[in-house]
Amino acid sequence: PDVPQYVFFNDDVCTQQGPFYSPEQYDEFNGPRVKRIADIVHKHGRRFIQHCCGSVGKLLPHFIKAGIDIIQPIQPGLPGNDVVELREKHGKEVVLFRGLDMQQQMRNDKPEDITEFYKRLFDKFPDGGLVMNVWPMPDIPLKNMLAFRAAYMEN
To answer: What gap in Å lies between CA 93 and CA 38, rounded to an integer?
Structure first.
């Protein structure tokens, strides 16, 4: 079809430490607006992606209540952003769109450690629900990007 399959909504409401404001304030001020948009998207059979950098764990149940289908990005290493814990807590209510840890892991870890980490991570999502956001940066060692690719190709 000539129509988009997803609607992507940019609305950062978190810092690297947590939400800009309380979950209750989100429900009062942002939630209703987001829900109206999500309802229109769903009415047309499409999926709604919420972009929100930072530590999203405290707001994730509120995003889900507002009708968000996919949250992007889940920044690794931030409080409340462990995708395995989020999956255990929220099940398949939302798809988690996780980035690679470009600040630490992909710069500093050994390739074999990167491959093993991602193999174990992918094993936690045997039935889907995890999308990886791969954004190669020029200062990331190629061998580390290839290590990630090796883990991905095995799953």
So the answer is: 14
